[in-house]
Every structure is written in C-alpha cells, then in structure tokens.
Amino acid sequence: MNFLKIVFDWMTVIGLVLLLGRIVTAVFHFLDIPFITLFKDYSTISFIILIVGVIGQQVIKDKK
Question: Tell me: the pLDDT tens digits for 8-52?
C-alpha cells in the first residue's frame, strides 16, 4: 500500500509539472514568442497522468 501511495504522489507531481509547462507554452504562444512544443504535443498524456494521480491519492486516503 505504501508503494502505491508513492506512485500516486509522483504521478500527481509529474502531472502538475507538465500542466505548468503547458500553461507556460500557451503564454509564450499567445505572446508569439518561439518556445518548445514538448508540452503541447503531450497534453493528453499529462492530463491523464494528473487525473490518475489525484484519483489514486483520494482512494488511498479514503482507505486509511
């Protein structure tokens, strides 16, 4: 159970970092400043990672 908690915590952190990257990419795109498209290309995957991490944390928290 402890292993799953660590995995979900890391998934949430990675999802939040990717979300922040998508926001920065959108701001630079809006300002017409060239920026990498890495976060834009993987937006669906990062959203899924974030959602799974948050739901997993809730399930682990409710079981305690």
Answer: 999 999 989 888 888 888 888 888 888 776 666 666 788 888 899
Measured distance CA(61)–CA(1) in Å, rounded: 11
Q: How far apart are CA 39 and CA 41, in angstroms?
A: 6
Q: What is the rounded CA–CA span in Å between residue 64 and residue 51?
A: 21
Q: Which amino acid is at 47?
A: F
CA atoms of 8 and 16, how far apart (whole Å): 12
**In one letter, which amino acid is 60?**
I
Q: What is the pTM of this model?
A: 0.77
What is the identity of the amino acid at 28? F
